[in-house]
From TrEMBL:
GO terms for molecular function: adenine phosphoribosyltransferase activity. Belongs to the purine/pyrimidine phosphoribosyltransferase family. This is Adenine phosphoribosyltransferase. The gene is apt. NCBIfam families: PRK02304.1-5 (NF002636). The lineage of its organism: Bacteria, Bacillati, Actinomycetota, Actinomycetes, Mycobacteriales. The keyword Glycosyltransferase applies. It is found in: Cytoplasm. It comes from the Bacteria. InterPro entries: Ade_phspho_trans, PRTase-like, PRTase_dom, UPRTase/APRTase. Its EC number is 2.4.2.7. Keywords: Cytoplasm, Glycosyltransferase, Purine salvage, Transferase. It catalyses: AMP + diphosphate = 5-phospho-alpha-D-ribose 1-diphosphate + adenine. It holds the Pfam family Pribosyltran.
Length: 179
């Protein structure tokens, strides 16, 4: 986005449209549902534009499964580069590169296809929510293990009480709204 008014519009849209769901997907977790933001064209456009802000020398945007796909594709279009879908385990045909990690309510695995060479490419990681930081950190490590250069990460919501930012300190991390 180009000025403070545009950023204010994006922040206001996220605050107005985010739906909070307690005890989902497991008891004790409060889920920030951004699908109402994505369903509003003006809100989505302002959020995507803001996430792309300040990232000019990017070869590839890595959108994390699944809401990060939506945002990542928009950011890639905004930046004029390609997008890489970072998938949950079992969603891609082999061969794949994989990375397991822990999250606040269990563990998971992320994968990228071996057919896409990320070595030496400047990659921006995009996701919807930063909670404990495990998913963004696992994505960064998965890509870095394959030779990618992580130029930064950007998320819509950061749940500050969960301390995820500390796990993502090796690269710039931008956040639109902190709660």
């Amino acid at each position: 986005m180009n000025d403070a008014g545009d950023r204010t519009d994006a922040v206001a849209a996220v605050a107005r449209l985010t739906r909070w769901v307690d005890d989902f997907p497991v008891p004790g977790v409060r889920f920030g549902d951004l699908t109402p933001v994505f369903a509003d064209g003006r809100a989505l456009r302002s959020v995507v534009s803001e996430l792309a802000q300040g990232h000019h020398d990017v070869d590839l945007v890595a959108g994390i499964d699944a809401r990060g796909f939506l945002l990542g594709a928009g950011v890639a279009l905004e930046l004029g580069c390609g997008v890489l879908a970072v998938r949950k385990a079992g969603k891609l045909p082999p061969p794949v590169h994989s990375r397991s990690y822990d999250l606040e309510y269990g563990n998971a695995e992320l994968q990228i296809p071996t057919a896409i060479d990320v070595a030496g490419r400047r990659v921006l990681v995009i996701d919807d929510v930063l909670a404990t930081g495990g998913t963004v950190e696992a994505t960064e490590r998965l890509l870095a293990d394959q030779g990618a250069v992580i130029v930064g990460a950007a998320v819509v919501l950061e749940i500050t009480a969960l301390g995820g930012r500390e796990r993502c300190s090796d690269y710039p991390l931008a956040c639109l709204v902190r709660v």
